[in-house]
Known about the structure:
Shape: globular
Distance between the termini: 44 Å
CATH class: Alpha Beta
Oligomer: single chain
Radius of gyration: 15 Å
Amino acid sequence: MIAEPLDRIMSWERARAWRATVLGKVVFTNGVFDLLHPGHVDILLGARRSGDALVVGVNSDDSVRRLKGPDRPVRSAPERCYVLAALSMVDAVVVFDEDTPFELISALRPDVLVKGGDYTEASIVGATEVRGWGGDVVVVPLTPGHSTTSTIARLRGH
Length: 158
């Protein structure tokens, strides 16, 4: 049976309830995921392989504008969430409006926290807390040659 993407897009409240029912390790990763590319897929696959269920935190449109500037995001949060939720390795998608996912991580208390290789454990928001409750932190190597920023620049002829 194919899962419906909209069923995997959750409010914080529903995500907390979902998290309480998951048997095994819950993995958390987050990002903008504006224009999905092979690098995103590799991080999501690496994250999912680190546990039994994957929840993806997605920056809200306002958060993206604050972090990336007025021309971003290219796709709205509902569009970005829908695409992510359609991927088989993703079990839940939750939008957060803050500039970092710290509050969402604290609310969901994942067993594993995953980020891409442009981070170190010391720079990953929530890493100390996840380690503190006995969880793991994983850094997935980046896939060379793939970034949303460079894709947008190419599309704009820069």
